Amino acid sequence: xxxxTRPQPGPDCSKDYRSQEVIDTLREIFYGKxxxxxxxxxxxxxxxxxxxxxxxxxxxxxxxxxYICGRCNSIKSTTTDILDCCSTEIDVSKAIKCIVPSIPDDxxxxxxxxxxxxxxxxxxxxxxxxxxxxxxxRGITRELLHEKIFEEYSGFIxxxxxxxxxxxxxxxxxxxxxxxxxxxxxxxPFSIFWKWHIWSDPYLSSVLKxxxx
Length: 213
Ligand SMILES: [Zn+2]
Fold this sequence. Notes:
By secondary structure, this protein is mainly α. It has eight helices and four strands, in the order αββααββααααα. α5 packs antiparallel against α6. The longest helix is centred in the C-terminal third of the chain and has 29 residues. Bound molecules: zinc ion. The site of zinc ion has 9 residues, from β2 and α2.
């Protein structure tokens, strides 16, 4: 998860929450990424953060519309009480520790960083988003998602090795550092992983000055 800055007022969605203007604005502010799994999805949908089943009055409310992928939308369903990535009061990427497994088919590790109910609920939901394979289709979408994350992770490792190796020329070290910093931006696919792989790594967090505080 990554933080999203939502323009106020947003586009008019009082009659149609799927209008071109609404979709274009959501795509831009969510960087074309699903707000849960951070995949730059080719299958975008609109999620009602507070489900329509829970509160129908929020169906056409700008602040309740979120950019989501088809896989995560079907998994989230009517889940409530999760962390809000559009809140200005919380850094959502720091709330859930996310680590890539060393074998692509293994489960991604998710760990809520405090005991608040919303953080625990979010970790549970993200665990399902990234790992659930309880149907044939979800087995396929999980595999495709894991392969994308693993491909990015292999780049991350390569940049780290280049940055740390005494054999790397200065320009290559500089480029590797810029790549790693770019991966940690909210706009980058699966940014929460690269943030946590930097924060959890004493070498990278000191060299990139990208501390967990
Ligand atoms: Zn997703």
